[in-house]
Specification:
single chain; alpha+beta; Aminopeptidase; eight-stranded mixed sheet; globular
Length: about 200
């Protein structure tokens, strides 16, 4: 069902849109992976082969996917980077190095009982500021409540003040700050805020 702005949120990704989601992901988050020396084509291929598309919500406008939101709860993770996917793009030493660095950034098991995590949110750069991200998060909150979760969590890098303010408007509060130090050097941020909203 479309909202007043014509945005429709789907639980199932339309057929043939895997590449589109991978491109949106890389457009939004590619700079975070600068320290891994992954070029755009390699990055998009790794993302496309790593995402679990059944763990997402997809925003459509005029029959086109324009944004997505991924979930992480229990063993279900939208962003599921695996070593074998890296091995397809790099030599064994190169894959080992990149994968070991990447896994230091990935949140581990969710320890808070009854919590679901927003793994990632991305919107087409040409359509940001039109309420698509807000619509996705509101839909995620509604779905989390229906699924019986007691809280919903996300992380936002410290250089993305605009996103942090949006999350605050939607009821999220900062739970802690994680400083990545040298690991984030050159990526355009120093750490991330962990934010939580109780449902």
């Amino acid at each position: 069902m479309k909202n007043a702005k014509g945005i429709e949120v789907l639980k199932d990704l339309p057929e043939g849109e895997n590449q589109r989601i991978a491109e949106l992901f890389w457009e939004a988050f590619g700079s975070k992976y600068k320290s891994l020396y992954i070029n755009k084509d390699q990055g998009i291929a790794i993302v496309r082969d790593s995402l679990r598309f059944d763990q997402g919500l997809y925003a459509c406008l005029s029959n086109r996917v324009v944004g997505f939101l991924g979930f992480h709860y229990g063993s279900h993770r939208f962003t599921d980077f695996r070593f074998d996917v890296f091995r397809r793009q790099f030599s064994l030493p190169g894959a080992l190095l990149r994968f070991s660095i990447l896994t230091t950034f990935l949140p581990g098991r969710i320890k808070e009982p009854g919590e679901i995590r927003i793994d990632s949110v991305a919107v087409d750069s040409e359509l940001r500021g039109k309420g698509i991200g807000t619509t996705l998060i509101e839909e995620a909150i509604s779905l989390a409540k229906k699924m019986g979760f007691r809280s919903i969590r996300l992380e936002v890098i410290d250089s993305n003040e605009r996103a942090k303010k949006l999350y605050e408007r939607l009821g999220f509060k900062t739970a802690k700050y994680v400083n990545f130090g040298i690991l984030a050097r050159g990526a355009g941020f120093s750490g991330e805020y962990v934010m939580r909203r109780y449902l």
